[in-house]
## 1
Amino acid sequence: MIGSLAGVITAKEPPRLLLEVRGVGYEVDVPMSTYLALPPLGSAVQLRIHHVLREDASLLFGFATESERELFRALLKVNGVGPKVALAVLSGVSADAFRAAIATEDVATLTKIPGVGRKTGERLLVEMRDHFKEIPALGGAVAEEPRAEALRALQALGYKPQEAQRMLDKVNVAGASTEDLIRAALQGAALKQERP
């Protein structure tokens, strides 16, 4: 099996790139998170590879980081999730945001990913929750995104998950800290209560 490839990027057509390694061109599908981090054509790059062998094909999936590859492999173990859906998940949200969605049982975030419907989203919540309990994040605990932390804080204040999510959905503050998001969500809720 192929575990990694180091070579020169000779073609880029999302989500696929052509990586030339010692005169051999390898077609590698990558998630958008990896694709956007790639250097320009003609540059050298090293990717971690997940190799899928089938009767009719040999498929290569490349990742910039080990944590992305581990998450991809974990997604493949979920019933009904194949390589295309797993790649879509990694393209639709960051690995940290995905972990946060699982931790907060945020199925709405998961169903926004192309190819992930309600049933698949719910299955991901159930099966991936167990996975994250068994396998800690590489390099220690993953810091949650401010939005996910704010959601957990609002739930700790007594708001139901759906209500807390609605409160945060009304807050549109790019690059806001957890504290800013909580403050804005609570102010929005207070204004709503003051209106007749």
## 2
Amino acid sequence: MVAIAAVGCLAVAWIIGARVADGFAVPQPPRPDDLEIVAVEGDIIRYRDTRPDVGLADVGRLAIKLPGGGWVYTADEVSTQDGVSTRKIEKLDGPTPKTGDRAQFDLMYFPADPQRGLGLEYEQVSFPGPLGDYPAWVVPGPGSTWLIYTHGRGSTLREGLRVVEVAHRMGHPALLISYRNDEGAPRGDGMAKFGFDEWEDLEAAIAYAKMRGAADVILAGGSMGAAITLSLFEHGSAQASAVRGLFLDSPALDIGRQTRFAAEAMGVPGVIAGFGLVLTSWRFGLDWEAMDYLSAVDDVKVPMLVLHGAADSLITVESNRPVFEAFMKQGNATIEIVPGAQHLGIWNRDRAGFEARVGQFLAKIGGGAP
């Protein structure tokens, strides 16, 4: 009986390891068009979420992306009755949706690129890095301090547009970067390593910004992009000396701890969950210790602003707590937990508050328009 139980535990741990590895593979499978348009009446859109158990929660300011490329910008208030939700349309980009059309929510809100999303001129470039050439966008500005944005796992360059919008108003040029395994970027091993090796791509991006005239830089990152940012410091990059400050949105600062929490929340005993992570590390080369950025705290000497949603279920506040507490003790970080906000959804929950916090931080560290 003991042998049978041991085999059963091993099988469960093996399955957990495979599921964890699926979550780290890039690119991730595309999301389904799970919204059904019910009606568009003037500036009101009504829709039904056919799969409310998956995908984005219907909370805050969201865009609705149509299969033909159309875009519906909606306000942040939503009401639901008999399974049909109603939002106010702020702007249509493309044809008016028709009854029966299928669509999906888009958390990043702004479509396509800086020109279409924000009305800003930009340059599509590539910068040389350790594995080849990496696609990026440059949004010009009069200042000499560039903002460099690193997006999260499975996301795209446009994730950074909400931060670029604030930085541009303050005169900062911006560089939105890709990294290994992104579409169009050099292929790595196909696994998101949460900074373990991707920091080298960010290092190359800083060098590129300096080559383009940046005197120094501000680094911003969302989710896994925040982990990549701290990894740059932990690895003692020579380019870290060019950094004036850091802005981290919904950071993933100990993905191993978060993965254990997620397994235990599904009812998997802690011992088996831990064994599953060990197997995952062995099978797929994921170094959990290297993806824990508590060890990076002493390496970061510049001012830092961190925003994290209290309702973030993908990367919970609790998973980051040891790192947050260490930064607060060090004294150079402002860490705000935003009520009701989900993962990378702080802007969506409170656009004005997000922009005010980021704007105040950029003003504090300086380096904008002369």
